[in-house]
Amino acid sequence: MDYVQLAVPFFILAVLLELTYGFFIKKNTYRFNDTISSIFMGSLRSTSKFIGIGIGGYVFYLAETKYALWRMDESSLFTWIFAFIAYDFFYYWFHRISHERQIFWASHVAHHQSEDYNLSTALRQTGTGFLISWVFYIPLFIIGVPSYVYVSVATLNLVYQFWVHTEHIPKLGWYELFFITPSNHRVHHARNEAYIDKNYGGVFIIWDRFFGTFKEEDEDKPCIYGLRSPIRTFNPIWANFHIYVKMIRDFVAADSFKEKLYVPFSKTGWSPSNLNIKPVNTDKDDFERFDPKSSKAIGLYGVFQLIILVLLGLSLESSTLGYAKNALIIFMIGFTMFCVSRWFDNKPVLKLEIIRLILLPFVFIYFLPLSLELIYLTIGYVLFNAVILYPIYQSSLRTINA
After folding, report:
1. What span, in angstroms and rounded, lies between the C-alpha atoms of 385 and 377?
2. With 381 labelled, which of 74, 164, 289, 396 sits at a CA distance of 20 to 30 A?
3. pLDDT tens digits, the chain, 402 residues: what are they?
4. Other C-beta atoms within 10 Å of 266: how many?
5. Residue 339: how many CB atoms within 10 A of its CB?
6. DSSP letters along 385-399, please?
7. Backbone CA torsion sign across 232, 237, 242, 248
8. CA 383, CA 402: separation in Å to the nearest integer?
9. For residue 158, how many other CB atoms are within 10 A of its CB?
10. Bridge partners for 225 per DSSP
């Protein structure tokens, strides 16, 4: 049972409620550009599984069917309680190592890029996590946790983590001693030197207390969110791959063969000794969020594209088009997200948008077996985008020059 799929409508409702509440108390924690970027990232995570090679699933299958010590009874309450707690224990180590070693940080970093902290930040998920994160959960299958129970507790763990991404809930007394809360998870997302690499648990904070990675939120030291080395873009593609690019550059730049081999397994933030890169000061009180000017028209344009892409992504859930055609759709989804992010970044994008609008009908009508109604919808979408493209461009120029 994948509880994340069931929870998506409640996630969206909760985001809207938090946004409304923030305006009501005059403490809004949302920005159009950052929020849309976060939801784009969540959509990419959902669609990336359709082009995943499935190595993790196959290894899980072998572990469960050929190498499991025994098989637990999935109808037993003990099995579910044990699996829920054990999953969070292995999640703690996955999460911790994902912060400490570069190859794992490369996929996890996407979740930490937002310089805001709100419920939409929880939706900001990696699109490359399927590549290696599965390694940490093999022991669960070896000790007999059934795959049905594993998927259920894993998605329940992720659903729980949603509500802790908010600035509006204070400390919760005794509950803070045992469970992950908004307060101790704010610490986890902070870039302040005192807060970096703390509070890794998914549901339980007890692992952090036991293994020495717990840090309490200090009310005299407000959390500053984001990366130590900000990427300064809303581009979801670069957000997912910039650490991989860094590793390639480090590998090429390293003088010694030993350092080249060390690149993937190095501590996060490490670079070859010959580059002489200075540490980043993460305690600056004058830290400025990346927030280029955007017109209201571009904000509405982003919302429109977001709705279309979410609906398109949901359609892939029941897609029978096959691997190649699904990959083609995902490419166009990513291309559209890239174009929207360029508007938000105030980067040149008009030519790219024209290329996108030319490609769309060619890809969707020529390569995909669409019904007549879907063909009309595709043409209508392209024409609507073509009509509003130049006014959007003019609006962006006026905002930049203001």
Report:
1. 12
2. 396
3. 778 878 888 999 999 999 999 999 999 999 989 999 999 988 877 665 555 556 677 788 888 888 888 889 989 999 999 999 999 999 999 999 999 999 999 989 999 999 999 999 999 988 777 778 888 999 999 999 999 999 999 999 999 999 999 999 999 999 999 999 999 999 999 999 999 999 999 999 999 999 999 999 998 999 999 998 889 999 999 999 999 999 999 999 998 999 999 999 999 988 898 887 776 666 666 678 899 988 889 999 999 999 998 887 776 665 566 677 777 888 888 999 999 999 999 998 999 999 999 998 888 776 666 677 778 888 899 999 999 999 999 988 888 776
4. 19
5. 19
6. HHHHHHHHHHHHHHH
7. negative
8. 30
9. 18
10. 190
DSSP SS3 for 220: coil
Backbone phi, psi, residue 40, to 5°: -55, -45
Sequence-separated (6 or more) residues with CB below 8 Å from residue 206: 178
State whether residue 369 is helix, strand or coil.
coil
Tokens, residue 188:
């986890």
**Measured distance CA(345)–CA(341) in Å, rounded:** 6
Structure tokens at 8: 């998506």
34 contacts: CB under 8 Å, gap ≥ 6: 114, 115, 116, 120, 234
Q: Among residues 311, 322, 318, 332, which one has the least CA distance to residue 369?
A: 322
CB neighbour class for 86 (10 Å; exposed up to 12, middle 13-18, buried from 19): middle
What are the C-alpha distances in Å from 49 to residues 42, 45, 375? 12, 7, 26
Q: Identify the H or E element spanning 244.
A: helix 236-253
Residue 353's identity, in one-letter code, is E
Residue of 93, 71, 97 whose CA lies nearest to 149: 71
In degrees rounded to 5, what are phi and psi of residue 353? -65, -40
Cβ 2 vs Cβ 155: under 8 Å: yes
